[in-house]
Amino acid sequence: MAINSGPSVDTGDPQGGLFSTPTSVNPNAVPLTNVSLAEIQAEVAKAEGYSENAQESASIASAAETNASDSAENAASSALSASNSAAIAQDSKNLVVALYDEFDDLYLGSRTSDPNTDNDNDPLQPGALYYNTVSNKLKYYNGSVWFQVDSALEDAIAIRQEFVATQGQTTFEVPYNVGYVDVYLNGVKLTPVTDYTAINGTSIELLDSADLNDQVSVIAQSAFNLADTYTQSQIDAIFGDISTAVSDSEAYAIQAEAARDVITGMTAATGAAGTEVIWDNVNGILTVPRGDTGPQGIQGIQGIQGETGATGPAGADGLGWTGGSYNPTTGIVTFTSDDGLGFVTGDLRGADGTGIGDLLAANNLSDLANAATARTNLGLGSNNDVEFNSVQLAGGTGTQGTFSWNTDEETADLILNGSILQLGQEVHYHVRNNTASTIPNGSPVYVTGTLGSSGRLTIAPFIADGSIPAKLFIGITTEDIAVDDDGKVTHFGKIRNLDTSGFTEGAILYPSATTAGALTETAPTGININLPCVFVIHSASNGTLFVRVNGLDENEFATAAQGALADSALQASDIGVSVQAYDANNTTASNTQTLTNKTLTAPVIDGGYSEEVYAVSGTTPALDPANGSIQTWTLSGNSTPTDSLAAGESITLMIDDNTDYTITWPTMTWVNNAGAAPTLATSGYTVVALWKVSTTLYGALVGDGT
Fold this sequence. Notes:
Blueprint: E1 2-3, E2 35-36, H1 37-67, H2 72-106, E3 107-111, E4 129-132, E5 137-141, E6 146-148, E7 158-164, E8 171-173, E9 181-185, E10 188-189, E11 196-197, E12 203-206, E13 215-221, H3 232-264, E14 267-271, E15 278-280, E16 285-289, E17 321-327, E18 332-337, E19 343-344, H4 371-377, E20 390-392, E21 402-406, E22 411-415, E23 420-422, E24 427-433, E25 444-450, E26 457-461, E27 473-477, E28 486-498, E29 508-511, E30 519-520, E31 534-538, E32 543-548, E33 613-616, E34 622-623, E35 630-634, E36 642-643, E37 650-656, E38 669-670, E39 685-693, E40 696-701
Parallel strand pairs: 3-4, 14-16, 24-26, 33-35, 34-36, 35-37, 38-40
Antiparallel strand pairs: 1-2, 4-5, 5-6, 7-13, 8-12, 9-10, 9-13, 11-12, 15-16, 17-18, 18-19, 20-21, 21-22, 22-23, 24-28, 25-26, 25-27, 27-28, 28-32, 29-30, 29-31, 31-32, 37-39, 39-40
Helix pairs in contact: 1-2, 1-3, 2-3
C-alpha cells in the first residue's frame, strides 16, 4: 500500500520528543511522495547504518584520545567523519519521523466511528484509512464521505449486463451491491428512486414499464479489498523498530558529538622527524613527528585570458584580381591580377552525356534537328504518344484536378472537391447546401432554388410524402455537404464507400415517404411519391449504389407524353376520395364493382338486389350488421349476445331454438309483444328485427313468433 504525499503526522507528543517535527532535512533524503512501508524500512536500515558509522567514528576518536597513535591529519579526519556521521544520523532520524508522521495522517488506526479529523486534529485527506471495530471493516475517505471497503464483486471493477426489454417489462434480474449500481434506458442514465428502485441486490425495478426492444443497461460497480496490506499489529511492530533505531541513532550521535568536542579542543604540534608521538594531557597538546615530503600536487587550472591588445597599424595595399574570362570552345577560364601574373585553368567541361535523361549532355536539346530526336534524347521513345500515371490541372487545391486511369471502370477518374467523377459514366450537379444542417453522403435531395450568377443550385433533403413535386428531385449526394458549402450530387452513376449493409443486394431503393433524406426498399403508395432511383450494387459497410433519376412518380396515371398535365392527372390515391371508379366492361352480372364506406344519395335501383346471409354461432356473439343484414342463429346453449349496431343500422335475425334455450338480450326497447322480449318457439324460427336510433337499440317480433 503506497502512502500519498502531503500529510504531517501527529505523534501525540506536543512538547517535541522522539517524533517532534524536524528542523532540518537532508537534501539527499528520499522525497515524501508515494513512499511505501518498504521504503520506510529501508530508511530505518540506513539510519541504523549511519548510527553504526557514528559509533565507529566515536571509537576511532576515543582511541586517538587514549593513545594518540595516529597522525594529526587522521585525527582531524576522524573528527570530520564523526561530525558528518552525526549529521547524517540526525537527518535520518528527521526523515524517519517525517515518514511516520505522513503515514500516521493517512492510516488513522482503529476507531468505533468515522473521524472528522486526522491524528493531528487536522482536516482529513482524500485516501485516508481506518479500521472500524464495530463493523470490523476497513473504511476509506474519498474527500467528502467515508466508504466501507466491501468484499462483494471483488473479482471485477464493474459488471455490465445488457437487456432487450419485452413490452411492459419492469423487473430485470441482476446481482449488484446496493448503492453501487447505475441503470441506463436506451443510453439515457436513469435516476434512482425517481426512475427505478434497487434495494435488494438481486433485481432492478423500473417505475415506468419498458417498451418492446428497449435497451436496458445495468452497470453493477464492485467494492474491492485492499491487497498486500499490513495489520495494525504489524504496523505497530514496524514503527516500534523505527523508534528503537531512532533512539540508538541519538545515543550514537551523542557519543560522536562528545568525541568531536575532545578532538576539537586539542592543540597539535609538529615534532622532529623520527620522534615519537607525545600527548600532553595537562595542556591538551598532541605532538606528532614530521612526515616525509609528499609528491608535487596537480597543476592548477589556467588563469583567465587577458584583454585584447590595441589594433596594430594598417598594412600596405595588396595586389588583387582584376578579372577573368571563359573560352566556351576550350572550356578554359583565364584569371588576371594587378601583378600581371594571374593563372589559367584546364578544360572545365565535363564528358559528353549518354543522351538518355541527361539534359546537359552535348547534342541533347541545344542543337536538335527535329522533335523525334528530342524525344529520343529525353528517353520518351520515337512515337508521338506521351504516357503518365496521372496529370494534375492547375487551379485546384490539394489533389483537385488530377486525372488518372481507372482500370476497374475502364475510364478516366477526375478528382473533384471531395468526390471522384468517372468520365463518360457519371453525371454530377455542383450544388450548395443552404439548409441549417450538414447533408450526409448518400442522401436523396431536391432543388430549392438557385444562387443566380454563381450558377449553383441550392438543395435540401427530399421526402416522398407528396409535399414536394417529383420534378424537383435531382439525385443522391456523393459526399457530405456542410452548411453553406458546395458539393456534388450524382444524377447518374455510382456512389461508393457508403454503408449499404441495411439494404438487400440487387434491391431497388426509393426516397422515403416518412424520413427526409433517407432511402427505403419499400415503394411508397397512395398519395406518396413513388420514385425508383437507386440500385444496390454491393451491400456492405463500404458498399456501392447506382443512381438513375427520371423524376417520374409511378403512382401517377399520367405519362411523360402528357407533359405539363402530369401534375394534375388522376392519381390512384384519388379513387374513393375525389372520384369513384367505373369499369366500362361491367356489362354482365358476373362483373361487380365494390363501393366501401360510400354514401348513396337517392339511388335508383333498376331491378332486384340481394343481401348477404350470415350464420351466427356461439353463445356470446356480437350482433354486427357488418356480417350481413340477414342473419340466422341456431342456439347451442343459453346465450347472451352483445350489441354492435351503430345508429341507422339494422338486422333481421332468425333464431332456431328446438331445445328450449333462453337468450339474455342486451339493453334494448321492444316496440311490440307488450314491450317484452319474445318467447322463443321450440320448433321453426323466431324472427326479430333489430335496429338502432341514436344510441337506443330497438327490437320487434316479426309475425306471431312461429
